Amino acid sequence: MSKMHIHTTINGDEVDFLGSPQQSLLDALRDEVGKLGTKEGCGTGDCGACSVIVDGRLVCSCLMLAAEAEGAEITTIEGIADGDGLHPIQEKFLEHAALQCGVCTPGFIVAAKALLDRNPDPDERTIRYWLAGNLCRCTGYDKIIRAVQDAAQELAHEA
Amino acid sequence: MAEAVDYRYVGTRPVRPDGVDKVTGRAQFGADQNLPNMLHGRVLRSPHAHARIKKVDVSKALAMDGIHAAVSGADFPAVASGEIGGEGGGDVADIACNIMARDKALYHGHAVAAVAATSVEIAERALEAIEVEYEALPPVLDVLEAMAPDATLLDENCFTKNLPEKPDKPSNIASVMVLARGDLEAGFEQADVVVEGEYRIPMAHQGYIEPHACTATVNEEGKATVWCCTQGHFEFRAMTSKILNWKIGDLKFVASEIGGGFGGKTVVYLEPVAVMLSKHAGRPVKMVMSREEVFRATGPTSGSVCRVKVGAQKDGKITAAKAWLAYEAGAFAGAPVMPGAMSIFAPYEIENFLVEGHDVLVNKPKVAAYRAPGAPQAMHAFEVALDDIARQIGMDPLDLRMANAADEGTQAPYGPKFPAIGFKACLEAAKKHPNYTKPVPEGAGRGVAAGFWFNIGMQSSAEVRINEDGTVIVMEGSPDIGGSRASMGLMAAETLGVPYEQIKTYVGDTESTGFCNVTGGSRTTFATGLAVVQACEDIIAQCKSRAAATWSMDEDQVEWEDGQAVPAPGVNADVKPLSLADIAASAPKTGGPILGRASLNAQGAGASFSVNFADLKVDPETGAVEVLSFTGIQDAGKAIHPAYVEGQMQGGAAQGLGWALNEEYIYDANGVMENAGFLDYRVPVASDLPMIDTEIVEVPNPSHPYGVRGVGETPIVAPLAVAANAVRDATGTRINDLPLSPPRILAALGDD
Amino acid sequence: MAKVVFPDHLLTHTGGEREIEVAVANYRDLLVALEARWPGVREPLNKAAVAIDGQIYQDAFLEPIGADSEVFFMSRIEGG
Fold first, then answer.
1. Which of B291, B481, B647 sits opposite A42 (nearest CB)?
2. Model confidence pLDDT, tens digit, residues B497-541
């Protein structure tokens, strides 16, 4: 089957890759581009482990075709940290022990980043509903919510 | 109770050693291992829940372009019955038939054949070319129907075990067990109130977010390396060795980071198949399950029917208790009914009791361990019955439990007398907790229940290496599923007296560290922690010896204090203390590199009790349950890293609430699971839950230097009955079965 | 004499005896004594856990058993 040439910007870098027409963005990111931080938990858009930001919108990369990403700007977990330091959301996840096994963590951090980019001061209910598309089976969400709240405060303080 | 001890590092909350890799996407999980020239393996699964396999022909698949190997049951050796030492998920002959069916397919989704191809798509097309001839048989799906004398048999060679005499007819009841004490009849005669009920819970899945995955490569010398997500790479190696009849020495297993397990990754599914495909193809083979495969073919926990009868006096004293348990094993024997029977009455001192348990084959996936395996189902039944007793005699549910609470010296229902335990301390903490003393919110109901798990020890090894500059490497073999590297680092820091930041903790593969049993049973911080502490003590002994030699003293004239060797009190010597870094720097002249080690089979794991309560609200229009608050109180013995102990308690509460309120395997009449995806098998999401309050009780376990009991199992036990009792309190209607999903609640409320 | 108690599922191996008294120094010697009394019992006992004076051992070996000790054989515990 012939492959398609797809041109994107991923985490600020121009990235060209060849993808098959039926390939999901998730599979392309993992198998063609080597961004293994984006995880597959279900492949059906139910768990959020594959969350990425495409042109400012939070998406499940398993539900998007790679071909649809032509010309898009994509942020993956590998692009959340700025330079050699961690992003405040990442720092707060560590401080609050907001991860146990850690496989859902990239998706949560990307989703939380997308939330705080558009709403820098969300209340607990807003955070819980925004993150309702990301499944975590280890933590019971308590420490994740606290980490996001704390990160929002930190970012507000920095701003 | 032992005195509280002040520690410098133990009990603090530092960042975990693997944390940065896990928040940046750098950490390598099961599906993240890729090798040059790698193929992709896929599994063909039975479309029947019960069928005889007459023929499997892979030749057409093998002839396809891009297909490099195809295998079926006939390619695997016959495996003798036996258990993998320690924790093996049952009989290895059964595991062998579970990962690749031989003459019978025993559940919908049972593996029948597998292929390796240059792409996943080609592999999936090749599966369609495999010819399988089935003779469909009627599926046995209900545990009570399976127990009937005339039931269709899953296994004609299954004769019920543990009966006084060997039965002359085979049965779906793989084994029975009995625990009894005292005089049941006399006990019930003394009772003022008696509650009796039957409680049913369907199968539920561990629901780890990471599907099973592995990559195997076999070289020309017939030696294999397997990367996989596992709770125990040493046991996976042992199982693969038995299933393939390969030498253990020819198999190297590397544990990747693991994306959750909860017991479900203690047993192999893909690994022996991947090794076999790689051997046939001469190329590396990667296998990753889909979420649907995870639901259809990997470890749910048992569905159950529990019948309970309990009698008590007006003052709350339980006079007699009786339980009858039937647990679904799935397709092969091994339901956790024995631990269920041993735990059902464990929190209480009961003179007269009887528990009968049944391990029952049904045409559903072979069950795997799930957090405190067997305890939640049985304890749900009893804790619900106790709630009804409390209502009938008008007693606070915590007071009722306190009136019967087991304590040090109580004869546990499974035999021995308890050493120091923390159940009463948990009850006292609950009674005083601000969430308990505040009134139940308007329109809501409050539920209370207790939880328990034995905890286990088993085998662990650890090595501690001192680098030239005095920094420390801790190497052990317990996959880190929830922050255990941090706990190991803290115990090493405390023992050695050096800062936590100076220590790196690694989980080694099967060839770089000594044997460790699975991360499971809440054993890792206890048993592997014990090995780490002992390996550090080995380091200290060596450092003292080197300091003594340096100072021309006897070894007993040197002590280890705050991370340095110092002359013992009363020893008159004009010497400067030697730090770990000093001793490491001079190591070439004092005997070479400093390496400490310990290996052990840890005994004396301490039981962990819990008390949970919650306020829930039921919407009478929709039947939906809202969790307003949840409080978990548990005896951890000692919380090495309290944040991760709280995390275990909160995560267990969420899983228990999911099991209580929504999660269930739904089957059609043909034995096909109808909700094999996260959309329809609905685990709790962030918007379903409130913050989960925790209180850690610390009654130290005398068998561990820092008092650790282990915490991971117990938190899932109580929430089932907590939810059931809160819904009863909120609605005035007792619903015996789980889950308390909207349709069930609406039906029950409609009946009133 | 130490008290030794067997659970229901092991009674087929002990001729139905639930509780006996034995004078031994440690667990290894107990197994030897029990095997002498009921040939073949060692195998199922090796698959069991044992509690000696309240302390549970998945794999006991040389643990001392005193004159007043209580020894309970029980099922091995696994875990998730």
1. B291
2. 999 999 999 999 999 999 999 999 889 999 999 999 999 999 999
- What is the C-alpha to C-alpha distance for residues C67 and B420, in angstroms, rounded to an integer? 22
- Predicted pLDDT at B396: 98
The architecture of the domain spanning A88-158 is Orthogonal Bundle (1.10)
Q: Which amino acid is at B564?
A: Q
Q: With contacts defined as CB-CB under 8 Å, which chain A residues touch B24?
A: 37, 77-78, 80-81, 86, 90
Q: Are B106 and B154 in contact (CB under 8 A)?
A: yes
Q: Answer yes or no: is pLDDT of A121 > 80.
A: yes
| Cβ-nearest to A139 among B32, B290, B647 | B647
Residues of chain C whose beta carbon is less than 8 angstroms from a beta carbon of chain B are 5, 7-9, 11-12, 47, 51-60, 63, 70, 72-75, 77-80
CA distances from B659 to A135, B544, B653 (A): 15, 53, 10
Distance CA B706, CA B700 (A): 7
Q: CA-to-CA distance for B503 and B526, rounded, in angstroms?
A: 19
Give the residue ranges of DSSP H helices in chain A. Answer: 25-27, 88-95, 105-118, 124-130, 142-158
* Amino acid code (one letter) for A105: T
DSSP letters for B165-225: S--SS--SEEEEEEEEES-HHHHHHH-SEEEEEEEEE--EE---SSPPEEEEEE-TTS-EE
Alpha helices in C1-80 (DSSP H): 27-37, 42-46
Q: What is the CATH number of domain A4-79?
A: 3.10.20.30
Look up residue B683 and give its two tokens: 């685990």
User: How far is B314 from B316, CA to CA, in rounded Å?
Assistant: 5
Q: What is the pLDDT of residue B83?
A: 78
Using one digit for the tens of pLDDT, what is the confidence trace for C20-74?
999 999 999 999 999 999 999 999 999 899 999 988 898 899 999 999 999 999 9
Helical pair B423-432 and B397-404, crossing angle rounded to 10 deg: 160
How many Cβ atoms from other residues are within 10 Å of residue C47's Cβ?
A: 12
Residues in chain C closer than 8 A to B261 (CB atoms) = 80
Q: How near does any CA of chain B get to the CA of C36, in Å?
A: 22
Domain C2-74 has CATH 1.10.10.10: no
- Across the interface, of B19, B29, B641, the residue whose CB is closest to A39 is B29
Peptide bond into B739 cis (omega under 30): yes
Q: Which residue has the tokens 């054989």?
A: C73
Residue with tokens 């329109």: B443
**∠ CA(B145), CA(B147), CA(B152), 5° rounding?**
70
For residue B476, which of B488, B458, B494 has the smallest C-alpha distance?
B488
Name residues of chain B where pLDDT drops below 50. Answer: 1-2, 86
Please state the ipTM of this predicted complex. Answer: 0.98
User: In chain C, what residues touch B84 (CB-CB under 8 Å)?
Assistant: none
* Angle subtended at Cα B229 by Cα B277 and Cα A30, rounded to the nearest 5 degrees: 80
Distance CA C24, CA B199 (A): 45
Per residue in B333-355, pLDDT (tens digit) is 999 999 999 999 999 999 999 99
Which domains does chain B show, CATH number per domain? 19-26+457-602 (3.30.365.10)
Contact B24 A101 (CB under 8 A): no
Domain ranges of chain A: 4-79, 88-158
Residue contact A44–B291, C-beta within 8 A: yes
Residue among B388, B309, B370, B368 at smallest CA distance from B344: B309
Q: What's the sign of the alpha-carbon dihedral A100, A106, A111, A113?
A: positive
Kindly list the domain boundaries of chain C, sorted by start residue: 2-74
Q: Give the integer Cα–Cα distance in Å for A5 and A28.
A: 12
Interface probe with B: pick from A138, A139, A143, most Cβ of B within 10 Å: A138
CB-based contact (8 Å) between B91 and chain C? no
